[in-house]
User: Fold this.
Amino acid sequence: MKKLVCSKKDSGLPIISVGNIVVGGSGKSPFVIELAKMQKDAAVLLRGYKRASRGVLVVSEMGEILCDEKESGDEAMMIAKVLPQASVIVSENRDEGIKRAKELGAKVIFLDDAFHKCYEKFDIVIDVKTPNRFCLPLGPYRLPRFFLRYANLVVKEGRDFTRNVTIQNPTAKMVLVTAIANPKRLLSFIPKDMPYYFFPDHHRFSKEEIDAIIQKERPTSLLVTAKDIVKLQKFGYPLSLLQLQLEIREEIIAKIDSYIKDYHAKKDANGSDAA
Assistant:
């Protein structure tokens, strides 16, 4: 089988891409967050799915939030709020986003879901188990599974990383309200008798929707994820946070650190800064 032909662009900075080859959630954002926490002068670049703005937008600069959630999109704002030592940028055009990250002084860039993009980068792909191995529209795969061979690192939950979930500010009667991909995965972390309301991924909640849930369930708080809380805080209801943190194997972290250091060392040795 022939290899993929891809003329890779060198951005002048080490790029770490975290993606998958299936539709839906796989833990990309928590994975990026954990890796970016360990780096100095990092920038996280996303497309800003379902945001109300266009073009290049700096969501945060070294922890300083520079826009609202509606402009940035829920995922970008979530990442910005938990990464005070990094900058977060949204841009449909990744070249323009990378250029802005360099202008902000980034030393490493984390790209969301850029496995299929032709940049010089370290590709991490999260492999998700699914019984249906067909590609869209017959199955969940965006790319055939053999594409995994082109990744620098293929990681699996349970083998390479684990999820640690805690509830912050728990109350006596909570109701789970969430708008994330594959929300059923949250059910294993909550009591079986807890009511829950699932909305489409990236859904923009209305006050009427939340009021209806409050009136029906009479909860002491709404249990939400970090991605939901940035959209629900404005309504003023008590919120409990279903906090997710990934624990990644040290060997994986070491490989990424090595790639970043080797990239910079190579650039220093050549005495050039690629555009």
In short: Residues 163-246 form a domain with the Rossmann fold fold (CATH 3.40.50.11230).
